């Protein structure tokens, strides 16, 4: 696959709530916390969800204690389940499908997350053999997401993740090595994977090509830091301050991670990530 096609796939993975039957507001379990004002069991519609599947407090989610709703991003899994898997039938008019639909959604979400990461990996300048393996994996995942509901429900998602994780790791190491070997000014921070930098002052730090997989960066001060070529897969960026930081060529950064962080108009993001509205307002 041409990297431009992969880029288009990655950029097309966006939620379109107008084509979804409020699945994230219904299918998922919500536990009351500073991010959600209420408890809500999985399979029960949120009390703010209207008959038209729109949120009645959409414009005031943060003020009303539902910050988590502004962070969430299904990457389009919601409209895929609503429009494709269940052919546009909604759970209000067809309550007999609701249980199955709500069970398929979190699986589709995970498949879409994997598709997004693999498509992103294919946008990098990688070896033909790695490209070939990624293409095969992407095709496989797309095939799984197109299956009928019962087949999706029978998937062992943990087993699906294993080859994906291996390929993403291989891609990450390949790219970070390439970048650091071409630029002698890059000094790689050792053993950053899963590091606990909660609340740490990293202002202005050069972290280029670091492996921050699974790192705890909650409320870390990353203002004006250089985060190019950093692998962010699974990193917790809640309330991390990214104002003025350069993440332009970071890897495997998600919209949800960015939505949960702080930043400003000086933060440089990869093409497939949009600055959240709460950074500007
Ligand atoms: S508050 Fe709105 S966006 Fe959040 S779960 Fe409820 S209906 Fe959905």
TrEMBL record:
Pfam families given in the database record: Pentapeptide (PF00805)
Signal peptide (UniProt feature, chain positions): none
Record-linked InterPro entries: 5peptide_repeat, Pentapeptide-BTB/POZ_domain
PANTHER family for the chain: BTB_POZ DOMAIN-CONTAINING PROTEIN KCTD9 (PTHR14136), PENTAPEPTIDE REPEAT-CONTAINING PROTEIN (PTHR14136:SF37)
Protein name (record): Pentapeptide repeat-containing protein
Species: Oceanobacillus chungangensis
């Amino acid at each position: 696959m041409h990297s431009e096609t992969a880029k288009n796939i990655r950029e097309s993975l966006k939620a379109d709530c107008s084509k979804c039957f409020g699945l994230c507001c219904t299918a998922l379990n919500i536990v009351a916390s500073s991010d959600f004002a209420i408890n809500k069991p999985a399979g029960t519609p949120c009390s703010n969800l209207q008959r038209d599947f729109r949120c009645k407090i959409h414009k005031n989610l943060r003020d009303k204690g539902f910050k988590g709703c502004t962070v969430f991003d299904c990457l389009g899994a919601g409209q895929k389940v609503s429009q494709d898997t269940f052919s546009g039938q909604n759970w209000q008019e067809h309550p007999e499908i609701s249980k199955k639909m709500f069970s398929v959604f979190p699986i589709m979400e995970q498949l879409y997350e994997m598709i997004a990461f693999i498509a992103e990996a294919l946008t990098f300048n990688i070896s033909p053999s790695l490209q070939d393996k990624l293409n095969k994996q992407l095709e496989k995942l797309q095939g799984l997401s197109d299956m009928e509901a019962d087949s999706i429900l029978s998937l062992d998602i943990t087993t699906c993740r294993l080859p994906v994780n291996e390929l993403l790791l291989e891609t990450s190491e390949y790219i970070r090595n390439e970048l650091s070997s071409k630029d002698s000014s890059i000094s790689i921070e050792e053993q950053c994977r899963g590091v606990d930098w909660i609340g740490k002052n990293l202002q202005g730090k050069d972290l280029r090509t670091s492996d921050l997989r699974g790192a705890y960066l909650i409320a870390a001060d990353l203002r004006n830091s250089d985060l190019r070529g950093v692998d962010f897969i699974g990193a917790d960026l809640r309330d991390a301050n990214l104002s003025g930081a350069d993440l332009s060529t970071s890897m495997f950064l998600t919209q949800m991670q960015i939505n949960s962080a702080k930043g400003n108009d000086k933060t440089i993001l990869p093409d497939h990530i949009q600055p959240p509205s709460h950074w500007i307002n």
